[in-house]
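Dear Dr. V.,

Thank you for agreeing to look over these. As mentioned in my earlier message, I'm a first-year student in the group and I'm still getting used to reading structure tokens, so any feedback on how I've presented them would be very welcome. I ran two proteins. I've put each sequence directly above its structure. The first is here:
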Amino acid sequence: MGGGGQQTDRITGTNGRFGTYTWEEVQKHTKFGDQWIVVERKVYNVSQWVKRHPGGLRIIGHYAGEDATEAFTAFHPDLQLVRKYMKPLLIGELEASEPSQDCQKNAALVEDFRALREHLEAEGCFKTQPLFFILHLGHILLLEAIALMLVWCFGTGWINTAIVAVLMATAQSQAGWLQHDFGHLSVCKTSRWNHLVHKFVIGHLKGASAGWWNHRHFQHHAKPNVFKKDPDVNMLNAFVVGKVQPVEYGVKKIKHLPYNHQHKYFFFIGPPLLIPVYFQFQIFHNMILHGLWVDLAWCISYYVRYFLCYTQFYGVFWAVILFNFVRFMESHWFVWVTQMSHIPMNIDYEKHQDWLSMQLVATCNIEQSPFNDWFSGHLNFQIEHHLFPTMPRHNYWRAAPHARALCDKYGVKYQEKTLYGAFADIIRSLEKSGELWLDAYLNK
């Protein structure tokens, strides 16, 4: 600890002392049970707080020993409120001689990105248009109502059932984008209302868990495409992704599946199974394991509503078949949209980059059109969404030119693709990773 003991009377941390620290000292506290972070040059001991963090246990741990200022700003719409909760965790600050950024980050880039955020806030880009989300919710409920009316009026024939399934899958996919908005606290004025409505949308409209989603998705945003930190690149040994992992697996002679053919079997075990099998199991396992009983109640309300509506027409067996077919179609939609901006991008271990650079190497945009905006829930603006996760999605287009200009200034690559090109890149990147694995497996 540096020579800050004389400041103890001015402010006191959880351990009864206030000090000044070097980055070297901060970076010693990275293990579970002993974790420090730096926010706005202040040093916080979050070792115990991680267990109560609303964003989940692991997300703060991913920044242990690091400067978390940019992530702190990105995730919290009400910074003053969060700072109040952080006061008891404060143990000191960086020594005056220490830079504000760790790991040799570009201080000018960090400062310009902060200025960009302030400019966008002043321009009103973080203000929500309630009518947009009301209409979006309305069209989801309308799709569900039309599906039920079609069964009521025209029966359970194959053609009518196929139309009903498409309408229901569309409603489920669009509800997925809507819960994503509330989960990121980008709709309501207060976090409390965002969390409440999020539970309703993801629980009652989709049959999933807000707590499970928060724990998983915020990690993805905090460290996108970073092995051991982003759960979205944990492929459970079914796939190898990027350029580093395939070679690593090949050298170690790891062969759970023939990865050189992963771009082929992706069509059979990727999009079809993610939601109806893997997510379905993980959601219920997570709710029960962690005692998320409120989430479980909302989730059960979805299943009660669905089966009350459809078993009277189809019976239990065929209602279950219809349910899983809808999940099957929704899963394809979800996988292609969410992976088109990430799987073809750089996937690697932690590199300790600044927020802008870290997000840009892991994300790309898809060209704008009314269809692409609706189809992807505005995640065709994946770059802007990752840079400013609390920004309402109807304002991404306003932020995009400014983000591109800042990237051009510092030579950070800003990628934009066609929708078809982005889909094709998923397969091309899997094929390339498979070839890297095979070469390492046979020759290294």
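The second protein is here, in the same arrangement:
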Amino acid sequence: MGVWEHATASATMLLLLLCLNEIAHVNSQRVPALFVFGDSLVEVGNNNFLNTMAKANFFPYGIDFPRAATGRFSNGRSLIDFFGEMLGVSSPPPFADPSTTGSRILNGVNYASAASGILDESGRNYGDRFPMNRQIQNFESTLNQYRTMMNPAALSQFLAKSIAVVVTGNNDYINNYLRSGIYSPGFNYSAQQFGNLLVNNLGRQILALHSLGLRKFFLAGVGPLGCIPNIRATGLAPPGRCVDQVNQIVGFFNVGLRSMVEQLNRDHPDSIFVYGNTYHVLGDILNNPARYQFDIVDRACCGVGRDRGQISCLPLIYPCVNRRQTVFWDAFHPSESAIYVFAWRAVNGPQDDCYPVNIKQMALI
């Protein structure tokens, strides 16, 4: 072997050893990785690579984020960023980014896609997106990469210790059921029937992820959508009030999701499924804003029209300056400050916030 060939072989061996050491370190962590599925509440840039109107890769999104506008639908950090910080795991990169390969996937991958839902058709009015079924397919693609990096036993342990975060269902209402002029479910299903439809479909999707090796699941419910600026802006409720009818509609999904979590835990004792009570936590923020140092609960920080919610945040619009005291960032999404409150309570809170255990407790199982 010549000098050049020997140097090349040595460099390759060194790279392999470094990679193996990194994998060993990741597998030794209590929570080695986060796998994120869902919509814009947990999106970190997948839609930047899709032909869609549902993007947040422009100012003023990210105005309070160190890397500016990345595709997060927030003025700052996302729910996943906070989960990662609280668990000691790096926030995973977006699946659609071509650079999401190799060592970049050792802390997990984010598959979430704005405008997506549990149902394939939800959000189609925005263009391309990755619905939940497609996100599961994308996860399978990532598994093929892992199989080239770890032996089967190591991969099984890695997946079992990781946490799957699932935040979806919002667009099945906002961009499906509640838009009966575009979609048919609003005509064809009662609110309870539609909630059951979503829960049954999501249940199959969670079982598909379980069959692929994931064992720890955080499943977030839908928040009080009748209180977001976009729904307030419809004028269906008096000024300053939430649209109670919409909140009642999403309640059927949340009740069904919690029941599904109980059933999954009974059926799969090798796993843990957790229900994140989004409705309860955000409702507490809206009902008791001073407790969390919020001043503005009924309009967006960035947007156009009534309650700044008729048209969501547009490029180069300058947002409000008191973002720390505002619950809603744009027509649909909480501010970074409100997201932090939910994240902290999901990780550390009592059973009213996270059932049957919180995320920190799940990490110890």
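From my reading of the second output: The domain at 28-363 is CATH 3.40.50.1110 (Rossmann fold). The mean pLDDT is 93. Does that match how you would interpret it?

Kind regards,
E.
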